[in-house]
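Problem statement: downstream parser choked on a complex file, so we are re-checking the raw output for the manganese (II) ion run. The parser issue turned out to be on our end (a line-ending mismatch), but while we're here, posting the original submission so the record is complete.
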Amino acid sequence: MLVVMRHNATKADVDAVVRVIGEMGYQAQALPGAQRTAVGVVGNDGRVDGSRIEGMSGVSEVIHVSQPYKQVSREWRPESSIVTIAPGVSFGGDEIQIIAGPCSVENERQIVSAAQLVRDAGATALRGGAFKPRSSPYSFQGLGKKGLELLALARQETGLPIVTEAMDEEGAHLVAEFADCIQIGARNMQNYSLLKAVGKIGKPVLLKRGMAATINDLLLSAEYILAEGNDQVILCERGVRSFDPATRNLFDLTAIPIVHKLSHLPIIADPSHGTGLRDKVTPMARASLAAGADGLMIEVHPTPERAMSDGGQSLFPEQFAELVPQLRLIADAIGRKIARPPAHAAR
Ligand code: PEP
Ligand code: MN
């Protein structure tokens, strides 16, 4: 339930509403907005009787949030949220951000050259896994802390903020020390203790859709993070499992306009994991922007044929450099803009 206050409501009116909600056994949260102040009710998972509140001084209307998720819904916050991972790198506004880099951090030369080349081609953030959730326990698991240190070095060299995955609570604290945005991978979308942990840490989170998750599941997982007080959440469509082995996953671009309708959170698209096929990444990256994605995450490797993970879906540097100007044209056609890489720090 959301209690929308009148423009001329006083602080005493808002305080009284908060008190009554508390007396009803729920938690109230004042939400000062650009247009209006509202008081949100949390701590309930069913309909709350709003009749006691409707007649109170300063109350304009009582809205029943019809979805099982509350704080992530557009009913709760009608304006689109903007999530900023570093100065000038914001998701959810007119500007579209491109996160690019290899699947995994492999060594200093690989990650630093990847960072330089994606930045020179127009990427605005660097990706690269230090902790890798591999389907097989015998596959390369990532460099761990050393990988995070190498990412920090790549950031220093290029000025690009870092997006990297955390797989468990302990790892989340470590990742938070190095990263600008903590990625929660598809396999962990419903790891609720991890979601709560990153909610408490408070750093921006990139939450990827689970491979068998509905859009409702994705939004409920995001709700776990917001419920801990962290509203800096970017969602990511990365494909779901299907019966068709023609692609690695079934890239669900319809999720983008659906999420935009249901939620105020930004959503980006990952055509690399979405298709699993290098030559399908370019057309689906273009399609993602046309569908309204607030950003892209694309795997690019300096030498994909030597990659320790996901080489077959990683773009060659030249392919990425060719793609970005095409994305600028598409963004232009729909009244948006591809952000420019952040001003260079040190080189
Ligand atoms: C990744 O981004 O490297 C990754 C493992 O993605 P996902 O969690 O979507 O499979
Ligand atoms: Mn990968």
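For whoever reads this later: The mean pLDDT is 95.
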